[in-house]
Structures are given as C-alpha cells and as structure tokens.
Amino acid sequence: PQIIRYLIIYLISISINFTVAFSVQYILGEGILNENIATFSGIIVSIPFSFLGSLLWAFKKKEEIIVS
Which DSSP state fits 63? Predict the structure, then answer.
C-alpha cells in the first residue's frame, strides 16, 4: 500500500534529518548560530532523500501492459 511506503520514507527522512543535525551541532559546538546551521544542514540533506524516495518508490506509477 502507498501509505505504508510513504510513512517508511517519512520516518527515514526524519531520522536522516535528526542524525545530520545532531552530528553537525556536535561538530560545531554550542550556540544559537551553530544550532541553526545544524538544523538547516539536516533539512538540506533530508529533502532530496524524501523527494526521491517519494517519487521513485512511494508514489511510483505502475507500468501499463499494452497488449496488441
């Protein structure tokens, strides 16, 4: 079902976002600017995964079989 595949992509995307943001914040250290950079980095990395996952897997159209 499509909703299950979408939820899987969504959960993986959120996990990627959190992991990247946490890692960048750990590397950069404390501070408002560093936290904003970390959050932005997580978003930038997770958006392509979410888009491509939805496009290529979650909402993939079934191929039509043409019988002539």
Answer: P
